[in-house]
Amino acid sequence: MLAAAGAFGVVRKVRDGRLRMRGKDGAVRLTGAELGAPLGERATLVQFSTSFCQPCRATRRTLAEVAGMVDGVAHVEVDAESQLELVRRLEILRTPTVLVLDAGGRVVRRAAGQPRRADVIAALGEAV
User: Fold this and answer.
1) Span 18-126: which CATH code?
2) Which of 20-24, 101-105, 109-113 has the lowest mean pLDDT?
3) What are the residue boundaries of the structural domains of the chain, listed by start?
4) What is the pLDDT at residue 19?
C-alpha cells in the first residue's frame, strides 16, 4: 500500500501543471457566452477555480502576467462551483485547471494543476 501511494505521488508530481493535449480536446470549442467573458483576439487562457483553492491564486497571477505580455490574449477565470454543467462537459476534475484556446475558441492545450509560466508561453505559441 505504501509503495502504491508513493508511486501515485511521483506520477502526480510529474504530471501536475503540464500543458498537454487530450484526444478529444481539439474538437472542443468554447464561446465567450459560455465563459461569461469575451474571448481574446488571438488566444484565451481559461482558468477554472474554486474559492478554497490555494494554487488558484498563484495560477491567476501567472496567467494574468502572461496575458499582459502578449497582445490579443485574454485571461478568463471561471468559478467551477457556479458553472457545474460546463465543468462536467469539459471533464474538469480538479482546480486549477487551465485551458489554452485559440482565436476561434478551440482547446489547444490543457493543464490540471498550477502550470509553469514557461509552459503557458509555449502553449500560447501553438495557439497564436
Assistant:
1) 3.40.30.10
2) 20-24
3) 18-126
4) 66
Give the alpha-carbon dihedral of 22, 121, 70, 81, to 10 degrees.
50
| Contact by Cβ (8 Å): 111, 20 | yes
C-alpha 19/C-alpha 123 separation (Å) is 7
**Nearest-5° angle of CA 84, CA 82, CA 102?**
70
Q: How distant, in Å, are the alpha carbons of 34, 42, 107, 120 from that of 101?
A: 13, 9, 5, 11
Question: Which residue do the cell numbers 510529474 mark?
Answer: 14
Cell of 82: 457556479
CA dihedral of residues 68, 73, 75, 80 (deg, nearest 10): -160
Please state, in angstroms and rounded to a whole number, the distance separating the CA atoms of residues 24 and 38. 23
